[in-house]
Write a structure and sequence with these properties.
The structure holds three protein chains of three kinds.
Chain A: H1 5-38, H2 44-48, E1 51-52, E2 57-58, H3 61-92, H4 97-111, H5 114-128, H6 135-160, H7 163-171, H8 176-205, H9 208-211, H10 233-242, H11 249-280
Antiparallel strand pairs in A: 1-2
Helix pairs in contact in A: 1-11, 3-6, 3-8, 3-10, 4-6, 5-6, 6-8, 7-8, 8-11, 10-11
Chain B: H1 2-38, H2 40-44, H3 47-50, E1 55-56, E2 61-62, H4 65-96, H5 99-114, H6 117-136, H7 144-168, H8 172-180, H9 185-196, H10 198-214, H11 217-222, H12 241-248, H13 257-295
Antiparallel strand pairs in B: 1-2
Helix pairs in contact in B: 1-13, 4-7, 4-10, 5-7, 6-7, 7-10, 8-9, 10-13, 12-13
Chain C: H1 2-15, H2 28-36, E1 42-45, H3 51-59, E2 64-78, E3 86-88, H4 89-97, E4 114-118, H5 123-133, E5 149-151, H6 154-163, E6 167-172, E7 181-182, E8 184-186, H7 198-202, E9 209-217, H8 222-232, H9 234-242
Parallel strand pairs in C: 3-8, 4-5, 4-6
Antiparallel strand pairs in C: 1-9, 2-6, 2-7, 2-9
Helix pairs in contact in C: 2-3
The chains are: A mainly alpha, B mainly alpha, C alpha/beta.
Amino acid sequence: MRIPRSVVQKIAFSALTAIMAVTILTILTIITFIFWNGLPAVSSEFLFSMPREGMTAGGIWPAIVGTLYLTLGTAVIAVPIGLLAAIYLSEYAPDSTFTRTIRIAIINLAGIPSVVYGLFGLALFVLFLQLGSSILASCLTLAIMTLPVIISTAEEALRAVPQSFRVVSISMGGTRWQTIQRIVLPQALPGILTGVILGLERAAGETAPILFTGASFFLPQLPQSIFDETMALPYHLFVISTQVPGMPVRIQYGTALVLLVFVLVMNLSATLIRSYFRRKRQW
Amino acid sequence: MAKRRKLFETIIQFLIRACGYSTVLFVAAIFIFLLQAGLPALFEASPASLLGLRWYPIESLYGLLPLLFGSLVVTIGAAVFSIPLGVATALFIAEVAPRWMREVLKPFVEILAGLPSVVLGFLGFLVLAPLIRTTLNLPTGLTALTGSILLAAMALPTIVSVAEDALDAVPKSYRDGALALGATKWQTIWRVTLPAARSGVLTAVMLGIGRAIGETMAVMMVTGNAPQIRWDGLFFPARTMTATIAAEMGEVAGGSAHYHMLFLVAILLFLISFLVNIIASSMLFRAKKRAERMLS
Amino acid sequence: MVNLALAWAEAYAEVQPTVSISVSGGGSGTGITALTDKTIQIANASRAMKQEEIETAQANGVDPKEITVAGDAIAVIVHPDNPIDQLTLQQVSDIFSGKINNWKEIGGEDRPIVRVSRETNSGTHVFFLESVIRLGRNDDKTIFSADTLLLPSSEGITSEVGQNLNAIGYDGLGYITPAVKMLNLAANPAGPFVGPSKETALNGTYPIARDLYMYTDGEPTGWVKEYLDWILSAEGQEIVAKLGFVPIS
């Protein structure tokens, strides 16, 4: 006996809807769970003071500052390189074997496991270039890891700018760079920004690349220069949830919450920028 | 004035070119540094011992098989969970959900991609592992399965996002044609849209798997890290290559056999991820070519 | 011993605010390696440096000096509801090397044994391997059973053992929380079976006690010396006792 097509369709669509619901519920559960358990721990003292009594009391200020430093440092290194590389790929690169090699390199960079970046950072920046375990070494490692995300989204944004814009600019006597700088870049800016934020979001949440390149277990004061080690939120969460005995669960959830909010804010702003400008775009 | 602009233009173009080329340089640098630190391991340990069944660096036992096995089991487990879930979610978003819902759902699923792996690992250790031990009545909840579930959550957004793009790229005329021939909406999806987006969906799956193989922190926190090979390994502790590097690298003296060995593990990871990504992108490339052929 | 190092660093920040001491985690091997690489000034280690480590250090131009800073007892722990209260070292060795796989073999319930250990980079792991699993015999090549859970941390061990009736683990006295039960141990079957505590570690009746060390490059000078002197002072040793370790002297 054949089941009627309309029934098959009904079953299939219900199944898809159910799976979608499971996915949504999982995400919502994770987020609410952390908010529910972490919110009671969060206070201005928790956010803005130093850890005390073997990190079982006090705040997580140095970890927050550390993550800000690492994220900013990564941005300073990765954004210019990533942006220029994207410009190269969308505006200059000929359709050649070498360009294809570049593309394969980017795909490959995007796929390298974060812990392998960590080893590479250790071997090149910490040991070979003798930067030591430092903020600088960590930022360089994170920057290379972030590059593929920035390059591919920025290139996509640049390519989305209609060719006619460029033609008009060039025909009016603009040089190639002027065209890029004054016409193409401003149009592609929202897309680029989205890519940058998504890339940095990943950098902010990663632990493995900074594990051997600059993350510190505990520092009694904030780092003084880019050659110091630093505490960082993800590593701090790892440390207090696995390494410190008698750690109050409250503080663990609180730290998880702060880290979560940090990346959620980045994620949300990227999404908003993207949808806002997509709606505004006229071409 | 014009001269200065010309100079500026030359410099900036040089910079652009340099940055464009730099990615190749980075990949080469990564590979060279890994090789330089990892290849000596091949001379310090005999091939036979590398194929041994025991990884215990204190006694210079460097059997890579248990680590490969651990990564494999955890990744396959993650694939089993995340592929059906991810493809179904992508189908729902691309084909079933109304337009407004799609605008909300896709970024929402992408939130998962941003969740730091330590946060998932933390929850996995605290909540998921005890749950798995009691519900499945296992000796311990720190198992490959626990890691698989967390990895599935991390691979899911990649799969959904890329697969949805692929489904979205299937020309509307395909669907219209099928519907005009009297197919139901579901028949259209199952027999026309999904097969047409096949390579894109496969790419999504490969990229998701690539993400799962490389995950470190969450896996290290929940899989128990015991380097063992057993047929029912999914339900028992396992030690992945990534967790091994993260757990042991801090300890080893630069230049020791153990140090070289961990870099050798990293080379393996590098090659595996390279392979997975090349396959993924070549499938996408083929799909593009086919689409062009069909449309011209 | 990272929590001890952390507590010292934190307390010393108040004693001597001009000196800032940064603490890194990992294991004893981590610290010794870093000292050898000259990236740190003081290495904390829960085991003595091995001869080859000293040679590697010297080859690198580092002359490690050992200072004993505290004592410690290693507790063998199980779930509080586990009926087993005492074991001989031989039994503990057989459990961790995989010769005993079910609790009923040693008079417990019919449950599989889940072995829980620190990662291999931990000084506690190496100490346990040498003095318990191998019972101090140098020629013994017995190692941990391959299915032993290797957790990156002490916290992971106490929480796994505290939740799981099948589990047995071990850790330094300072890391033990009330969520787990410490077993009484005896070096030979006739007993006496002794529980770990500061007293039994100090008077030598508890069979698995050890010293905790700090290593410096050459004789400590300047702020390093002042810091170490402070650690050995009554004030520094008070912190040792507070954290559940064994003060020296």
